[in-house]
Design a protein that fits this description.
The protein has 591 residues and is of the alpha/beta class. The protein has three domains: 127 residues, 3-Layer(bba) Sandwich (Glucose Oxidase, domain 1); 116 residues, Enzyme I, Chain A, domain 2 (Orthogonal Bundle); 269 residues, Phosphoenolpyruvate-binding domains (TIM Barrel, Alpha-Beta Barrel), CATH 3.20.20. The protein is built from 25 helices and 16 strands. The strands form two sheets. An eight-stranded mixed sheet has the order 1-8-7-3-4-5-6-2. Helix 3 crosses helix 6 and helix 4 packs across helix 5. The C terminus is likely disordered. It binds phosphoenolpyruvate and magnesium ion (MG).
Length: 591
């Protein structure tokens, strides 16, 4: 039995078999396969080698036609090597004798061959060492790629153990089969974590080397509440967890009745609880959990899960479907927030520069839209056309200065005029707001309030930019904290300005769905929270157990501490006083 600690990002506990997917970009762990799987591994290896040979031959043909036969010959070394039966024998022998995965055999044998070349005196042969590593990466990508494609062809249920998953891979997981996720990489509010939470799949990330310690078929306990993974638990651990799962189920069903009750504090202040979604089909769950609207629709997921670039009709259909599912409840559509960790899943025009040095500080989100006007205009046209089907608002992400907002609004105005000229129907009075997720926007809230109908604080990004910690980097995850006094100060300031300038204010980062922060946020003046749907009942539970006065006191006291640890401990203690069950391990914390 091994127990590993990571970062809990999606609550719940699963006890199930593991399905391991290796990484393409790091050292491949040595994993042993059961004797019954050896033939399957050899088969996977041979298929990948054949595919690699076919791909290289194709590239050679293209190079020969375009650049001439002389240059095309550079592919001959790769071709000769991939077709060398002696090399194939080395892989097969290792799989059969050492019972390792095809990935490990390819990794190990080619690493050894590359070293041999690199130690030679002759410069030509030393260069070949690089070719061998190139070929190694090509075959590994094929092996691992096919394993990833098989994720949803798993028979029965399993927990995915992977180095990392992209947001679109996570979004595509079949919930009936994939019961939990454990990854080496990832941070608290990476989009993979957000997707897992939205799907209701327990997840632990940032485990660093879980892929080295687990083999496909191992039994796992993935505890998304406490952030630990137990590999091959003994009987006592299994018993302990089975009891814990039953306790969680009882707690879960005790919250079930809350969906129909109003989200009102004990002293009668209503709090608007809305949901964050990535796809139209999430509306039904959101409403069933008690959402009175959608406070954040992450429309970029249309691009993440598409096979080709979405058209205006694709946008329009998605928005109308969402509005119809909401049946009159309000919808806040956030314009495309592509870039950073949200990359398109298809080959198309290179909108996003994959080689950008600092993608989180780069041409992402509204910046990308303002540099690719057709992309932006297509989406805005579709939103405007959809506006006749229900109440919607438009929200621009990552606004970092006033000019950016003015520019975005001007483009919206142009699109409106075009539609008018063409006699297309739309609503002119759509509220236009922005996300406050960059410190410059929080500090300049007053100036922005003159241009925006509403603000929504995006704490996921606001935290990363305030404390300078990449939200998806597990190595510095302990520094990523919503309880950091500087973050609290910015939230308080924005709330004060919004109140004074009469700008509608909401908060839609993951912090909104964390029970530990609920009292603090209400105490700061927030009356509109939007969160991942599974978190709604628990937050409503807290709201109904507290008074605004109590929350104000908590907010005042929280701002007197100077470390995030003190803030978090204080917030948990205060929550424990009103709801001991929620505070003790059930919740996942941002801090
Ligand atoms: C945020 O940054 O808080 C947010 C809600 O947007 P996203 O998580 O999509 O970046
Ligand atoms: Mg954001």
């Amino acid at each position: 039995m091994i127990i590993q600690q990571g970062i809990p990002v999606s609550p719940g506990v699963a006890i199930t078999k593991a399905f391991v997917v290796d990484a393409t970009d790091s050292r491949v762990p040595r994993r042993i396969v059961p004797p019954s799987m050896v033939a399957e591994e050899v088969d996977r290896l041979k298929k990948s080698l054949d595919q690699a040979a076919e791909d290289i031959q194709h590239q050679r043909d293209v190079a020969s036609a375009k650049l001439g036969e002389d240059l095309a010959r550079i592919f001959d070394f790769h071709l000769g090597m991939i077709r060398d039966p002696h090399l194939t024998d080395q892989f097969v022998m290792m799989i059969e004798e050492d019972r390792v995965t095809a990935e490990y055999a390819v990794y190990f044998v080619m690493q050894r061959n590359a070293e041999k070349y690199k130690n030679l005196d002759n410069a030509y042969f030393r260069e070949r060492g690089t070719d061998v590593l190139d070929l190694q990466q090509r075959v590994l990508a094929l092996l691992i790629g096919s394993a990833r494609k098989e994720l949803n062809q798993i028979s029965g249920t399993a927990a995915i153990v992977a180095h990392d998953l992209t947001p679109s891979q996570t979004a595509a997981l079949d919930k009936d089969k994939i019961k939990a996720i454990a990854t080496d990489a990832g941070g608290r509010t990476s989009h993979t974590a957000i997707m897992a939470h939205a799907l209701g799949i327990p997840a632990v990330v940032g485990l660093e080397d879980i892929t080295s310690n687990v083999a496909t078929g191992d039994t796992l306990i993935i505890d998304g509440n406490r952030g630990c993974v137990v590999v091959n638990p003994d009987a006592a651990k299994l018993m302990e967890y089975r009891q814990y799962v039953r306790k969680l189920e009882r707690f879960e069903s005790s919250l079930g009745g809350l969906a129909q009750l109003p989200a009102v504090t004990k002293d009668g202040t209503p709090i608007t609880l809305q949901a964050n979604i990535e796809f139209p089909d999430e509306v039904a769950t959101a409403v069933s959990k008690g959402a009175v609207g959608i406070g954040l629709y992450r429309t970029e997921f249309l691009y993440l899960s598409a096979d080709s670039e979405p058209t205006e009709e694709d946008h329009y259909n998605a928005y109308v479907e969402t509005l119809l599912a909401l049946d009159g409840k309000p919808l806040t559509i956030r314009t495309l927030d592509l870039g950073a960790d949200k990359l398109v899943g298809y080959d198309g025009p290179p909108i996003i520069d994959l080689n950008e040095r600092n993608p989180f500080l780069g041409c992402r989100s509204i910046r990308l839209c303002l540099q690719h006007l057709p992309l932006f205009q297509t989406q805005l046209r579709a939103i405007l056309r959809a506006s006749v089907h229900g109440p919607l608002k438009i929200m621009f992400p990552l606004i970092s200065n006033v000019m950016e907002l003015r520019q975005a609004k001007m483009i919206l105005q142009d699109v409106m005029e075009d539609l008018e000229d063409q006699g297309v129907e739309f609503r002119r009075d759509i509220p236009v707001g922005i996300m406050i997720e960059v410190p410059s926007a929080a500090i300049q809230a007053k100036a922005l309030s003159r241009e925006a109908d509403f603000f929504s604080i995006g704490t996921n990004d606001l935290i990363q930019y305030t404390v300078a910690v990449d939200r998806s980097n597990e190595r510095i995850a302990s520094l990523y904290s919503g309880a950091h006094p500087a973050v609290l100060q910015l939230i308080k300031d924005v709330a004060r300005v919004s109140n004074r300038e009469k700008v509608e204010l909401g908060l839609c980062g993951e912090m909104a769905g964390d029970p530990a922060f609920a009292m603090l946020l209400i105490g700061c003046g927030l009356r509109n929270l939007s969160m991942t749907p599974p978190a709604l009942p628990e937050i409503k539970n807290v709201i109904r157990a507290v008074t605004v006065e109590q929350c104000k006191r908590v907010a005042r006291k929280a701002s007197t501490f100077d470390s995030d640890r003190q803030v978090l401990n204080f917030l948990r203690d205060e929550l424990r006083k009103v709801l001991p069950d929620v505070a003790d391990g059930r919740s996942i914390a941002i801090g």
